[in-house]
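Hi, here's the filled form for the chain we discussed.

Project: internal
Contact: R.S.
Residues: 130
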Amino acid sequence: MNTPGELRYSTDHEWVRVEGDAVRVGISDFAQEALGDVVFVELPEVGLEVTVNVAFAEIESTKSVSDLFAPVSGEVLESNAALEDQPELVNEDPYGEGWICVLQPSDSSQLENLMDAEGYQSFVAEESSE
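And the returned structure, exactly as it came back:
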Protein backbone atom coordinates (compact mmCIF):
# COMPACT_ATOMS: atom_id res chain seq x y z
CA MET A 1 0.00 0.00 0.00
CA ASN A 2 1.40 3.33 -1.10
CA THR A 3 1.08 5.95 1.69
CA PRO A 4 3.01 9.16 0.92
CA GLY A 5 4.51 10.66 4.06
CA GLU A 6 3.75 14.30 3.22
CA LEU A 7 -0.03 13.73 3.22
CA ARG A 8 -2.61 13.61 6.01
CA TYR A 9 -5.34 10.93 6.07
CA SER A 10 -8.90 10.60 7.35
CA THR A 11 -10.58 7.55 8.84
CA ASP A 12 -12.79 7.57 5.72
CA HIS A 13 -9.68 6.96 3.56
CA GLU A 14 -9.39 10.43 2.04
CA TRP A 15 -5.99 12.09 1.79
CA VAL A 16 -5.16 15.78 2.12
CA ARG A 17 -2.19 17.65 0.67
CA VAL A 18 -1.70 21.17 2.07
CA GLU A 19 -1.02 23.62 -0.78
CA GLY A 20 -0.60 27.08 0.73
CA ASP A 21 -3.94 28.11 2.23
CA ALA A 22 -5.86 25.40 0.34
CA VAL A 23 -5.87 21.60 0.48
CA ARG A 24 -6.06 19.07 -2.35
CA VAL A 25 -8.20 16.01 -1.55
CA GLY A 26 -8.34 12.50 -2.99
CA ILE A 27 -8.84 8.91 -1.91
CA SER A 28 -6.03 6.72 -0.64
CA ASP A 29 -4.35 3.89 -2.52
CA PHE A 30 -5.96 1.51 -0.02
CA ALA A 31 -9.43 2.92 -0.80
CA GLN A 32 -9.06 2.77 -4.57
CA GLU A 33 -7.81 -0.82 -4.29
CA ALA A 34 -10.79 -1.79 -2.11
CA LEU A 35 -13.23 -0.13 -4.52
CA GLY A 36 -11.94 -1.88 -7.61
CA ASP A 37 -12.27 -0.32 -11.06
CA VAL A 38 -13.67 3.21 -10.72
CA VAL A 39 -16.24 3.91 -13.46
CA PHE A 40 -17.77 7.24 -12.34
CA VAL A 41 -17.00 10.09 -9.93
CA GLU A 42 -19.69 12.58 -8.93
CA LEU A 43 -17.58 15.66 -8.24
CA PRO A 44 -18.54 18.42 -5.81
CA GLU A 45 -19.52 21.71 -7.43
CA VAL A 46 -17.18 24.69 -7.15
CA GLY A 47 -18.49 27.00 -4.42
CA LEU A 48 -20.08 24.16 -2.41
CA GLU A 49 -19.61 24.56 1.34
CA VAL A 50 -18.63 21.19 2.80
CA THR A 51 -18.69 20.06 6.41
CA VAL A 52 -16.07 17.81 7.97
CA ASN A 53 -17.09 14.12 8.01
CA VAL A 54 -20.19 14.79 5.85
CA ALA A 55 -20.56 13.26 2.37
CA PHE A 56 -19.74 15.75 -0.40
CA ALA A 57 -19.16 13.54 -3.47
CA GLU A 58 -19.69 10.00 -4.69
CA ILE A 59 -17.50 7.42 -6.36
CA GLU A 60 -18.83 4.43 -8.29
CA SER A 61 -16.84 1.32 -9.08
CA THR A 62 -17.64 -2.02 -10.63
CA LYS A 63 -18.17 -3.28 -7.05
CA SER A 64 -20.13 -0.50 -5.32
CA VAL A 65 -21.10 3.14 -4.92
CA SER A 66 -19.39 4.96 -2.05
CA ASP A 67 -19.72 8.40 -0.52
CA LEU A 68 -16.67 10.59 -0.16
CA PHE A 69 -16.53 12.48 3.13
CA ALA A 70 -15.02 15.91 3.63
CA PRO A 71 -11.76 15.60 5.61
CA VAL A 72 -12.12 19.27 6.65
CA SER A 73 -14.86 21.89 6.45
CA GLY A 74 -14.57 24.56 3.79
CA GLU A 75 -15.42 25.69 0.29
CA VAL A 76 -14.75 23.75 -2.90
CA LEU A 77 -12.37 25.86 -5.02
CA GLU A 78 -11.82 23.36 -7.83
CA SER A 79 -12.96 19.90 -8.92
CA ASN A 80 -10.92 17.56 -11.07
CA ALA A 81 -12.83 17.77 -14.37
CA ALA A 82 -10.49 15.18 -15.92
CA LEU A 83 -12.30 12.51 -13.87
CA GLU A 84 -15.52 13.11 -15.83
CA ASP A 85 -13.97 11.46 -18.90
CA GLN A 86 -11.29 9.41 -17.14
CA PRO A 87 -12.57 8.16 -13.76
CA GLU A 88 -9.94 5.41 -13.93
CA LEU A 89 -7.32 8.03 -12.99
CA VAL A 90 -8.44 7.44 -9.39
CA ASN A 91 -7.12 3.87 -9.73
CA GLU A 92 -4.10 4.65 -11.85
CA ASP A 93 -2.76 7.66 -9.91
CA PRO A 94 -4.70 8.23 -6.66
CA TYR A 95 -2.14 10.71 -5.26
CA GLY A 96 -1.54 12.55 -8.54
CA GLU A 97 -3.88 12.93 -11.50
CA GLY A 98 -6.68 11.10 -9.64
CA TRP A 99 -7.32 13.84 -7.06
CA ILE A 100 -10.96 14.79 -6.39
CA CYS A 101 -11.07 18.48 -5.43
CA VAL A 102 -9.33 21.47 -3.85
CA LEU A 103 -10.85 22.96 -0.69
CA GLN A 104 -10.37 26.26 1.11
CA PRO A 105 -10.54 25.12 4.76
CA SER A 106 -12.74 27.24 7.00
CA ASP A 107 -10.92 25.95 10.10
CA SER A 108 -7.34 24.85 9.42
CA SER A 109 -7.06 23.41 12.95
CA GLN A 110 -9.18 20.47 11.66
CA LEU A 111 -6.08 19.33 9.77
CA GLU A 112 -4.59 18.39 13.14
CA ASN A 113 -7.31 15.72 13.53
CA LEU A 114 -6.07 13.86 10.46
CA MET A 115 -3.56 11.02 10.67
CA ASP A 116 -0.01 11.07 9.39
CA ALA A 117 1.11 8.26 7.06
CA GLU A 118 2.29 6.01 9.90
CA GLY A 119 -0.95 6.49 11.83
CA TYR A 120 -3.00 5.77 8.72
CA GLN A 121 -1.07 2.57 7.99
CA SER A 122 -1.73 1.41 11.56
CA PHE A 123 -5.41 2.35 11.23
CA VAL A 124 -5.77 0.35 7.99
CA ALA A 125 -3.98 -2.66 9.51
CA GLU A 126 -6.31 -2.58 12.54
CA GLU A 127 -9.42 -2.11 10.39
CA SER A 128 -8.38 -4.96 8.08
CA SER A 129 -7.86 -7.38 10.96
CA GLU A 130 -11.36 -6.85 12.38
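Let me know if anything looks off before we file it.
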